[in-house]
Amino acid sequence: MMGLLLPICCWAIACSSFRLSAPLAAFRSTNNFAQSNRCISLSCQENGSIEDRQQRQHHRRRQVLQTLSTLLITPLLPANAVQEVPTSQAATSAGRRGCHTDTNPSRTVVECRGEIRQFSPDGRLSGVSATANGVSTSAVRNPSRFSPPWTYLTETSDSKVAWKSLVEAVSGVDGKLEIVELTDEYLHAVVPTEYPPGLTYDDIEFILRPEDNVVLYRSVSRTSVFVYPLTQPVSDKNSNLNRLQKIRDKLGWDEMGMRQTGSNRV
Questions:
Q1: Alpha helices in 74-185 (DSSP H)
Q2: Which residue in 22, 40, 92, 153 has the most C-beta neighbors within 10 A?
């Protein structure tokens, strides 16, 4: 009997082991498959990030090459090199005439010689642009550069006497001043620009209007300097206005309107 039971028990144990080992094997197989899928997914992500890095590096290389090609094609200029800019294309000479513009990376210099009366189509004194330093009785469109006419009636009613007094006062206001044109009713003088120093000249003009007992005038610096990023010229420290006030104070004449107080720009 015992000989019969022993084979039966062995067979049962073997069957039980088979039933337990089959699900375990299946579980292990499924787990290995999931791990394999996870590895594939991580591998794809790593590959994707590698591709992204490669694309960014390629893009950066292209930008560097483009920059280098631009530098090779464009002539290299030293820091103080001057480039001439046509007046019609320079915002720094807007509203001015007969100008020449020089610019470099640090500043722009505009010199205008076409604004005195001889170049005026209507024979009047020119106004003063916002891109220039100075004052004028004709700058009615730019109040910060407008100054009222003078009347000489506080001295005399004789226009010829008044004109003679004006010529004397102008001649004595600055030892460096030079009268370059003088008629019975027009005076044009030049004097080296005081501020900013080292530039060209200030143009000073007077016109006599005997029918109105007044004198019109204009005093403007030919040259304006613009320093990046300023959009207005470096100030003349009101040197044009102050010179005119010295002339008027010497004459003792009155202004026919509110006095121009000048600019506070640097």
A1: 159-171
A2: 92
Q: Are 163 and 203 in contact (CB under 8 A)?
A: no
**pLDDT per residue over 235-245, tens digit each?**
999 999 999 99
233-265 burial code (b ≥16 CB/10 A, e <16): bbbbbbbbbebbbebbeebebeeeeeebebbee
Bridge partner list, 188: 181, 205
For the chain, the C-alpha Rg in angstroms (whole number) is: 44
Which of these, 180, 188, 190, 193, lies nearest to 133 by C-alpha position?
Answer: 193
Which H/E stretch holds residue 12?
helix 2-73
Sheet holding 99-103, edge to edge: 83-85, 99-103, 107-112, 223-227
Distance CA 242, CA 263 (A): 11
Across 33-72, b (16+ Cβ under 10 Å) vs e yields eeeeeeeeeeeeeeeeeeeeeeeeeeeeeeeeeeeeeeee
For residue 247 the two structure tokens come to 């002339």
pLDDT in tens, 196-235: 998 999 999 999 999 999 999 999 999 999 998 877 899 9
CA distance linking residue 207 with residue 216, whole number of Å: 5
Distance of CA 145 to the CA centre of its chain: 21
Residue 211 token pair: 């029918």
Pairing of strands 99-103, 83-85: antiparallel
Task: Write out the DSSP string of 163-205.
Answer: HHHHHHHHHTS-TT-EEEEE-SSEEEEEEE--SSTTS-EEEEE
Residue written as token pair 């590959």: 47
Contact 199, 237 (CB under 8 A): no
Among 152, 125, 155, 150, residue whose Cα is nearest residue 140: 125
